[in-house]
Design goal:
The structure holds three protein chains of three kinds. Chain A is mainly alpha-helical. Helices cover about 65% and strands about 5% of the residues of chain A. In chain A, the strands form three sheets. A two-stranded antiparallel sheet of chain A has the order 1-2. A two-stranded antiparallel sheet of chain A has the order 3-4. Chain A has a two-stranded antiparallel ribbon with strand order 6-7. The longest helix of chain A is centred in the middle third of the chain and has 36 residues. Chain B starts with a helix and ends in a 9-residue tail after the last helix. Chain B contains nine helices and no strands. By secondary structure, chain B is mainly α. Chain B is globular. Chain B has one domain. Chain C is mostly helical. Chain C has one domain. Chain C contains eleven helices and one strand, in the order ααβααααααααα. In chain C, helix 5 runs antiparallel to helix 8 and helix 8 runs antiparallel to helix 11. The termini of chain C are far apart. Classes of the chains: A mainly alpha, B mainly alpha, C mainly alpha. At the B-C interface, helix 1 and helix 5 of B face helix 7, helix 8 and helix 11 of C. Strand 5 of chain A pairs parallel with strand 1 of chain C, so a sheet runs across the interface.
Chain lengths: ~725, ~230, ~325
C-alpha cells in the first residue's frame, strides 16, 4: 500500500520536475531533460501499474472533500492498471523519441512550452484512469483536452495547424459536455463518487440506461475516434509535431476507450442487447471508413491517423460484441470478446507508436512524408525500414506478430455469436464480421502500399536517395516497440491471463484461464477441470512441447466447446513462429545451399519494357496503387472534379490536361454539412434581428420579459 | 418414407437456395440472355420444389401443377419471348440499370434479410418440409419487384413481373398445397397471356421507336414533347 | 507422437510433390477440351527443373525483401498443409497451430510478401499487378468471413477436422447452406488462385496480368519457388474445399500407414473430379474486365450470405 503511494508520488514528482525544470535550464538542454525525466517517470508508471496488474494489488486514496460536491478520490483497480500499463509502454519509447526529435525545433518554437505541456499531459494521463469520482475525472479530462490542444498546436505559425487545433478543441468540448451529462444522470443518487454510482446501478430504468450509454459512448467516442465525431482526428494527428504524435496516437486515444468501458462496462453495465448492437455496428462502420480513407491517403502521417480510426473501430466492435454477450448471459464468451478488445488496444498502441516513430524519422531524414516522393528508403535507412515493416506486418494482422493475435481473437469472438438465440443478432454479427474482414483486407492493402511505396523500389526524389540513417534516439525506441510487437505476437498465452484481471469486473466472470489457455504444460494430467482424455489427445499432437523450457500453462490458445464439439477454436502463434522459421530455414538450405548452390546471382538493371531509360517518375505511385479502392468505393469517396486545365502547345496540339480532384469526406457530406447548414440558417435568422434599430432591441427585451413571466405563470 | 423425409426436405431447401440465387442473378446479370437463363433456372427450382412438396406431402395434384409449370415457364415463355420479341433485342450487348450492380446486390441482400423477418406475418407453411419456402418465396417476390424497379429495358422488366409471380407461387405451394388445381392453373396461363401481350407490344414499340428502354419512352407521352 | 509427426510430414510431402502434377493435369485437360493437344502433364516438373538449373538475375533496385519472398511464398502453403486434413480425417501433429481463420492469415502472409517483392524490383509492371492482386484480395476477404460464419453457425467450430464431420449425412450434404457454401468457396478459389474468369494464368500481356505480373522479375530458383508456391496454394485451397467443405470422403480414418497411403489415390481422385469442374468453368467463361471482378466477388458474397441465411433459418 505504501509502496503504491510512494510510486504515485514519484511519478507526479517527476512530472512536476518536468514542468519546473525547463524554466530553469537552458533551452538547448531541454530535450535531454525531457528524455531522462520522461523515461524515469514511465518506468515508475510501469512499476505502479505492473504491481497492480500482475500482483492484483488495488489502491485507494481519498484526497480531499469539496463541500457539497464530492470527495476527490483516486483508486487503482486492474482495469485502470491495464490502461496505465499500456500508456507506460507507449510513454517510455515516446519520451526518448520526443527528446531526440525536439532539438529540430530549437530556435523556431519554444521548447519550454513543449516540455511543460508534455509533463502536465503526462501527469493527466496517469491521473485520469486513477480518478474515481466524476468531479476530478471531468476536471482532468478538460485539462487533458486543453493540453493536447497546446501540444498539437505547437507549430502555431502554420495556419492549418491552428485550424486543426481549434476544430479538435471544439469537438472535444462538445464531447466533454456529453460526458458531463452522462455523469449527471449517473449521479442521481447524490454522490459523484464512482463507487456509489455503481451501487445504485439497479435503480435505473431502461430509458435512463439508454441515455447514459449514448451520452457516454458518443462523448468518449470523440477522443476514441468513432464516427460520426472523429473528423477532427486526421487533421489533428497530421498537424501534431513529430515529437508528440507517437504519444498522442498511442496513449490518448485509449482514454476514450477507457471512458466507454468504465462507464458502460463498469459503472452502469449494459443490460440489454441494444446498446451492444449500437457499439458493434458503429465500431465496424468506423473501422471500414477509417481504413478506406487511410488506403487512399498519400501522406504517411495522415494515413496512419486514419488507420487509428480503423483500429478504434475494431476495438469498439469487440467491446460491442462483449456487451451483447454479457447482456445475453454468455459471460464466458463476453470475456473472450473483452480480452480481444483489450489485447487489440494494447497492440494498437504499440504498433501505432512504432509506425509514427518510423514516419517521424523518415520525415526528419527526407523532409517529406508524401509516399509519392519517397521510395527506395530500404537502402538508405535499412533499420527504419525494418522497423516499419514489423509495424506494417503487425497492423496488417499477419502472423506471427501481435496484430494477428488480437484480430484473430476479435473475429473468433464474433464467430461465437453462434451461441446466441436471436437470429437477427446473429445476422448483424455476421455482417459486421464481413465488414471487419473487408477492413482487414483493406488494411493489408493499405500497409503494403505504405511500406512498399515508401521504402521499396526506386527513390522518387533526390532527398529520398540520400536520406541519412535514423539516429540512436529514434532507433532505440523503435527497436523496443518492434520487439514488443513480436513478443505480444508469439506469447499470447502469457498475455491473456494478465488481461484476465481487467476483464473480470466487466464481463461478470473471470475468463477462467482454462477457457482460453488450457494447462497443457501441467504435469498433473488429472487436473480437475479438463477431461484427462482431452489433455492426452493434445499431448499426442505435441501440445506439451517446450514444457521443460517455458514456464506457464501452455502455448496454445484454445476454446473448448461441448462434448460433441470438443474444440471451438485453437491457435498457437508460439509454435507457429518456430515452425515457420524452421520451414523457411529448411527451404533456404535445401533450395539455395543444395539445389542451387552452383547457380550465381547477378545484379542487372531492371527490365523496363523496352524504353530508353526507366526514370523514377515512370514507376507506379502510391496514388496509382490505391486507385482500385478509390474506383470500387466511389460511392463513399464521391470525388469531385474541381477543374480541368489544358496545357496546349500551339493551337491544336494538346500537351496535357491537369485535373484537380477534390474529395469531401463522407462524414462531412452526410453529418457535418447538414448540421452546419442548419446552424448557419439559425444564425442567419438571428442576424436578421440584428438590424440596428435601438427601439426594436428594447422591444425584444420587453418580449423576452413577457415570455418569461408567462412561462412562470403557466408553470 | 421416414428416412427419405430429411433428404427431401434438404433437397427442397436446395431448390429454395437455387431459387433465391437465381433471383439475385436476374437482378445482377448484364446480358439479356443471362436474364432469361436465370429465369429458366428459377422456374426449374420452382418446379423442383413443387415436385418435392408433392411427394413429401403426398399431394398428387401438385404434380400436375409441376408439370404444367415445367412446360410453360422454362420452355414456353422463353420461346415466346424469342419468337415475338425481336431477335436483336436478345443479342443486345448489355442491359442498363438504374443502380450499379454491387449496390443493387447490397440492397437485394437487405431485402432478403427483411423478407426473412417479414415471413412471420404470413400464414405458416402447411408441413414442416415447406417451411423454408415461405421466406424464400417472399424474398423472391421482393427481389422480383426490385428487379422491376431497377431495370430500364422492357424484357428484363417483364421477367421481373414473372419473378414476382414465381415468388408468390413458391411461397403459396407451401402455405396451401391443397389449393384446388384450377386456381393453381390460372397463374401460369395468366403469365402466358402477359408474355404474349407484352411481347407483341414490345415488338411494335421496337419497330416504331427503335428502343424499348423505358426511360427513353417517356418522351413519347402525349403532349409531353421535348 | 512419432506416427503423428510422420503422417503430417507425409501430408506435406503429398502437397509438395503433387502440386505441379495437379497444375499440369489442369493445363493439359484445358487444352484437350479446347481441341488442342497441350503440354504433357509433367511439364510443370520439367519447368521447375529448368528453373533450378538456371542462374538468377536480380534487379539492381531490389532489396532483401525480394530475395526472401520466394521462400515465404513457398513455405506458407506448406504450413497451412499441416493444419488441414489432406490425407487423414483426424488431426495430426501440431494441427492446433491454427484453425481455418488462422490458416487464411498465413496464406495472406505469403501474398503480402509477394506484393512487396513486386514493388521492390522497381519494375513498372510489378506494382500494377500487386495493386490488382490486393484488390482481388480485399474483395475476397468478406466472402471468406461469411463462409467462416456459416461454418461456425452450423458446425460450432472453425477447426477443419471438426467442420468436415458435419457434412457426412445425406440430408446435411444436400442442405442448401452446404451446397451454396461450396459454390461460394469455388468462386473464392477462382479469385484467390488467379483463374479465369478473374485472371488468366496463361496470359502473356503485362497490362492485363493480375497474378503473374508479380513474378515478372523472378528468374532461376526464385522463379521456381514462386511457381511451386502458387501451385501448392491452389492444391491447398482445393484440399480445404474438397476435404473440409464438400465431404471428408476418402480420408484415412485408421491409424495405420496403409490407410494413409490408401487415402492418397482417393483424395487425388476427388481432386481429379474437381479439376474437371474447373476445366469446364475455365473453358466456358471469358476473363472479366478488371473492375467487373468486384461484381464476380459480389456474386460470391451474395451466395455466401444466402448460404448463411438458409443455414441459420433451417426448420
Amino acid at each position: 500500500m505504501t509502496n503504491m503511494d510512494l510510486l504515485l508520488v514519484v511519478i507526479l514528482g517527476l512530472c512536476g520536475a518536468g514542468i519546473v525544470l525547463p524554466l530553469a535550464v537552458e533551452e538547448r538542454r531541454i530535450p535531454m531533460a525531457l528524455g531522462s525525466l520522461g523515461v524515469l517517470a514511465s518506468i515508475a508508471l510501469l512499476c505502479l501499474s505492473g504491481v497492480s496488474l500482475f500482483g492484483d494489488v488495488s489502491f485507494h486514496a481519498s484526497l480531499w472533500t469539496i463541500p457539497s460536491l464530492a470527495t476527490l478520490t483516486l483508486s487503482l483497480d486492474r482495469l485502470s492498471a491495464l490502461f496505465l500499463f499500456v500508456a507506460g509502454l507507449v510513454l517510455l519509447p515516446g519520451s526518448i523519441f520526443a527528446s531526440g526529435n525536439l532539438s529540430a525545433y530549437l530556435g523556431k518554437y519554444s521548447l519550454r512550452t513543449f516540455c511543460v505541456a508534455y509533463f502536465a499531459l503526462f501527469a493527466t494521463l496517469v491521473l485520469i484512469p486513477l480518478s474515481a469520482d466524476a468531479l476530478s475525472f471531468l476536471m482532468l479530462w478538460e485539462l487533458m483536452s486543453i493540453l493536447i490542444y497546446l501540444l498539437v498546436n505547437f507549430e502555431h505559425e502554420l495556419p492549418e495547424h491552428t485550424r486543426a487545433g481549434y476544430l479538435m478543441l471544439a469537438i472535444g468540448e462538445a464531447g466533454t459536455i456529453l460526458i458531463a451529462l452522462a455523469f449527471i444522470i449517473l449521479a442521481r443518487g447524490g454522490s459523484l463518487e464512482f463507487a456509489s454510482m455503481k451501487a445504485i446501478g439497479n435503480a435505473f430504468g431502461e430509458q435512463a440506461r439508454w441515455a447514459v450509454f449514448l451520452l457516454a459512448f458518443f462523448g468518449f467516442g470523440v477522443k476514441a475516434g468513432l464516427i460520426p465525431v472523429n473528423f477532427w482526428l486526421p487533421q489533428a494527428y497530421t498537424s501534431a509535431p513529430r515529437p508528440f504524435v507517437p504519444v498522442l496516437a498511442g496513449a490518448t486515444l485509449n482514454l476514450g476507450l477507457y471512458g466507454i468501458v468504465r462507464v458502460n462496462g463498469d459503472l452502469l453495465p449494459v443490460a440489454t442487447v441494444g446498446p451492444g448492437l449500437v457499439a458493434l455496428i458503429i465500431g465496424s462502420v468506423t473501422a471500414l471508413l477509417g481504413i478506406l480513407y487511410a488506403t487512399t491517403q498519400s501522406d504517411l502521417k495522415t494515413l496512419l491517423a486514419h488507420s487509428s480510426i480503423e483500429n478504434a473501430g475494431i476495438i469498439t466492435a469487440a467491446f460491442g460484441a462483449g456487451f451483447i454477450f454479457v447482456a445475453s448471459n454468455h459471460p464466458a464468451i463476453a470475456a473472450i470478446a473483452f480480452a480481444a478488445a483489450f489485447y487489440h488496444m494494447a497492440n494498437h498502441s504499440i504498433y501505432k507508436t512504432l509506425l509514427f516513430c518510423a514516419t517521424g524519422t523518415v520525415d526528419s531524414s527526407v523532409g517529406t512524408r508524401s509516399i509519392d516522393r519517397l521510395g527506395g528508403l530500404i537502402k538508405t535507412m535499412p533499420l527504419t525500414a525494418g522497423f516499419f515493416l514489423v509495424g506494417a506486418l503487425s497492423i496488417a494482422a499477419l502472423p506471427p506478430f501481435n496484430g494477428f493475435v488480437s484480430e484473430w481473437l476479435t473475429l473468433q469472438a464474433m464467430l461465437q455469436s453462434a451461441e446466441l438465440a436471436s437470429t437477427g443478432v446473429k445476422i448483424v454479427f455476421a455482417i459486421c464480421g464481413a465488414i471487419l474482414a473487408l477492413t482487414a483486407g483493406l488494411a493489408v492493402t493499405c500497409f503494403v502500399k505504405a511500406f512498399a511505396m515508401a521504402f521499396l523500389g526506386m527513390s522518387r526524389s533526390e532527398s529520398a536517395a540520400q536520406a541519412p540513417r535514423a539516429r540512436v534516439s529514434a532507433a532505440v525506441p523503435m527497436a523496443f516497440l518492434a520487439v514488443l510487437c513480436f513478443l505480444l505476437g508469439v506469447a499470447p498465452t502469457y498475455v491473456i491471463p494478465v488481461l484476465d484481471g481487467a476483464i473480470a469486473p466487466i464481463a461478470h466472470q473471470a475468463l477462467a484461464a482454462d477457457a482460453l489457455v488450457p494447462p497443457f504444460f501441467s504435469r498433473n494430467i488429472h487436473h480437475g477441470e479438463l477431461p484427462a482424455g482431452f489433455v492426452a489427445d493434445f499431448h499426442k499432437l505435441g501440445a506439451q512441447i517446450g514444457q521443460s523450457v517455458m514456464p506457464g500453462r501452455g502455448l496454445v490458445v484454445l476454446h473448448r466447446g461441448t462434448a460433441a464439439n470438443p474444440v471451438v477454436f485453437a491457435m498457437s502463434t508460439s509454435y507457429m513462429a518456430v515452425v515457420l522459421l524452421l520451414m523457411l530455414l529448411g527451404a533456404y538450405v535445401v533450395f539455395r545451399l543444395i539445389v542451387a548452390r552452383d547457380r550465381s546471382v547477378e545484379r542487372r538493371t531492371v527490365w523496363d519494357g523496352g524504353i530508353r531509360r526507366l526514370l523514377p517518375e515512370m514507376t507506379y505511385t502510391g496514388t496509382g496503387f490505391s486507385n482500385p479502392v478509390r474506383v470500387i468505393f466511389e460511392a463513399v469517396f464521391r470525388p469531385t472534379t474541381v477543374e480541368d486545365t489544358r496545357e496546349t502547345v500551339g493551337k491544336h496540339f494538346r500537351a496535357a490536361i491537369r485535373r484537380t480532384r477534390g474529395e469531401n469526406h463522407v462524414l462531412d457530406r452526410l453529418v457535418l454539412d447538414p448540421i452546419s447548414d442548419a446552424a448557419l440558417w439559425v444564425a442567419n435568422g438571428f442576424a436578421r434581428m440584428h438590424h440596428g434599430f435601438l427601439n426594436a432591441y428594447v422591444f425584444y427585451g420587453l418580449g423576452a420579459l413577457l415570455a418569461a413571466l408567462l412561462v412562470a405563470r403557466l408553470a | 418414407m421416414d428416412t427419405l423425409m430429411p433428404v427431401l426436405a434438404s433437397l427442397n431447401g436446395l431448390a429454395a437456395g437455387v431459387f433465391l440465387l437465381s433471383a439475385f442473378g436476374l437482378l445482377a446479370t448484364r446480358q439479356m440472355q443471362g436474364c432469361v437463363r436465370f429465369f429458366r433456372l428459377q422456374s426449374l427450382a420452382l418446379v423442383a420444389s413443387i415436385f418435392l412438396i408433392a411427394i413429401g406431402m403426398r399431394v398428387p395434384d401438385l404434380i400436375a401443377v409441376a408439370l404444367l409449370d415445367f412446360t410453360i415457364k422454362p420452355l414456353l415463355i422463353p420461346w415466346l419471348l424469342r419468337r415475338y420479341v425481336r431477335e436483336e433485342l436478345f443479342r443486345r450487348r448489355e442491359i442498363d440499370q438504374v443502380l450499379n450492380i454491387p449496390s443493387s446486390l447490397l440492397v437485394a441482400l437487405a431485402l432478403t434479410i427483411t423478407a426473412y423477418f417479414l415471413a412471420v406475418i404470413l400464414p405458416p407453411a402447411a408441413g414442416s418440409m415447406g417451411n423454408i419456402n415461405v421466406p424464400v418465396g417472399l424474398a423472391g417476390l421482393l427481389l422480383g419487384a426490385f428487379t422491376l424497379a431497377v431495370r430500364r429495358e422492357a424484357v428484363p422488366q417483364l421477367i421481373g413481373i414473372f419473378a414476382i409471380e414465381n415468388g408468390s407461387l413458391f411461397a403459396g405451394i407451401a402455405i396451401a398445397p391443397r389449393l384446388p388445381l384450377v386456381a393453381e392453373m390460372a397463374f401460369p396461363f395468366d403469365m402466358l397471356i402477359i408474355a404474349l401481350v407484352i411481347g407483341i407490344l414490345t415488338r411494335i414499340t421496337q419497330e416504331r421507336v427503335g428502343t424499348t428502354e423505358v426511360g427513353a419512352l417517356r418522351s413519347l407521352r402525349e403532349g409531353g414533347a421535348e | 507422437m512419432a506416427r503423428s509427426i510422420g503422417f503430417n510430414l507425409l501430408q506435406v510431402l503429398f502437397v509438395i510433390a503433387l502440386a505441379p502434377l495437379v497444375s499440369g493435369v489442369l493445363a493439359r485437360l484445358k487444352e484437350v477440351v479446347q481441341s488442342r493437344r497441350g503440354p504433357s502433364i509433367f511439364q510443370p516438373y520439367r519447368d521447375l527443373r529448368k528453373f533450378f538449373n538456371k542462374d538468377e538475375v536480380v534487379s539492381e533496385h531490389a532489396s532483401w525483401i525480394f530475395r526472401v519472398t520466394p521462400y515465404v511464398v513457398f513455405v506458407a502453403p506448406i504450413f497451412v498443409t499441416t493444419l488441414i486434413p489432406v490425407l487423414t480425417s483426424y488431426p495430426l501433429f501440431f494441427a492446433f497451430m491454427g484453425d481455418m481463420l488462422g490458416g487464411g492469415f498465413v496464406l495472406a502472409l505469403g501474398g503480402f510478401f509477394a506484393t512487396l517483392a513486386a514493388v521492390d524490383t522497381a519494375n513498372p509492371y510489378g506494382p500494377m499487378g500487386a495493386s490488382r492482386t490486393r484488390m482481388v484480395g480485399f474483395l475476397a476477404e468478406p466472402v471468406f468471413m461469411i463462409v467462416f460464419f456459416t461454418v461456425s453457425f452450423i458446425a460450432g467450430s472453425t477447426i477443419p477436422y471438426i467442420v468436415q464431420e458435419h457434412w457426412v449425412t445425406l440430408p446435411e450434404f444436400f442442405a442448401p447452406s452446404h451446397v451454396l457454401l461450396v459454390i461460394a468457396f469455388v468462386m473464392l478459389i477462382l479469385a484467390e488462385a488467379g483463374r479465369i474468369p478473374v485472371d488468366n494464368p496463361s496470359g502473356h500481356f503485362e497490362l492485363a496480368m493480375i497474378d503473374e505480373s508479380k513474378n515478372l522479375e523472378y528468374s532461376g530458383s526464385g522463379m521456381a519457388l514462386m511457381k511451386w508456391g502458387g501451385q501448392m496454394k491452389l492444391l491447398v485451397l482445393m484440399c480445404i474445399l474438397l476435404n473440409v467443405l464438400v465431404s471428408p470422403w476418402g480420408l484415412a480414418h485408421g491409424q495405420s500407414i496403409g490407410d494413409v497411403l490408401l487415402a492418397a489415390p482417393l483424395v487425388l481422385f476427388k481432386i481429379g473430379l474437381f479439376i474437371l469442374v474447373l476445366v469446364v468453368i475455365e473453358s466456358s467463361l471469358a476473363k472479366l474486365r478488371l473492375f467487373r471482378v468486384s461484381e464476380f466477388l459480389g456474386a460470391a458474397f451474395v451466395t455466401s450470405v444466402v448460404a448463411m441465411i438458409t443455414g441459420l433459418l433451417r426448420f
